[in-house]
Amino acid sequence: MQTLTIEGYLAADPSILSAHGSGKKRASFRVLETTRFRRADGTPGERTTGFNCVCFYEATAEKYIEPFARKGSRVVIQGHVENDTWTGKDGVEHFDLRLIVGDIRLKNRRDRAEDSPEGDSGGARTASGYDLNDDIPF
């Protein structure tokens, strides 16, 4: 089995779904990863790729992803790729790839109010007042 590791941002809040027969919960979400490159003529470019991800571990989905993962959260995911097929309402069979999550790490920043009683981020600001700990807004 091949393992894939991606780092990116959640495109939306994860969906926590229950299986029809067993009632076990799973998390479903989409991760966006942007690659920056330079074209042959020297101009910069970028390409964003979306990955459909599913986490079948009920404890992870319920106790880790559901309470802490939000749209824009930075994540590192390790898992394997599977083919996903389904038949649409129009009777056409669709094919897609999805990443089955084996391990997930959220790289969320804590709220500033939690960092210190005064709400300051701890001196990580430059002279211009720019916070070096700020993530890219997504």
Overview in brief:
This protein is mostly beta strands. It is built from two helices and six strands, in the order ββββαββα.
Uncertain residue segments: 111-130
Taking the sheet with the most strands, its summary is: 5 strands, mixed, barrel
Helix content: 10-25%
CATH topology: OB fold (Dihydrolipoamide Acetyltransferase, E2P)
Overall geometric form:
globular
Q: Reading side by side through the largest sheet, how are the strands ordered?
A: 1-3-4-6-5
Structural class: mainly beta
Can you count the helices?
2
**Strand residues, percent:** over 45%
CATH architecture: Beta Barrel
Question: What would CATH call the class?
Answer: Mainly Beta
CATH H level, superfamily name: Nucleic acid-binding proteins
Mean pLDDT: 82
Distance between the termini: 33 Å
Radius of gyration: 19 Å
Key terms:
single chain, 138 residues, mainly beta, OB fold (Dihydrolipoamide Acetyltransferase, E2P), five-stranded mixed beta barrel, 47% strand, globular
Write up what this structure looks like:
The chain is mainly beta and 138 residues long. The chain has a single domain, classed as Beta Barrel (OB fold (Dihydrolipoamide Acetyltransferase, E2P)). Helices cover 11% and strands 47% of the residues. It contains 2 helices and 6 strands; from the N terminus they run ββββαββα. It has helices at 58-68, 112-115, and strands at 4-10, 15-18, 25-38, 44-55, 74-87, 93-106. It has a 5-stranded mixed β-barrel. A hairpin with a 5-residue loop joins strand 3 and strand 4 (44-55). It is globular, with a radius of gyration of 19 Å. The model is unreliable at 111-130 (pLDDT under 50).
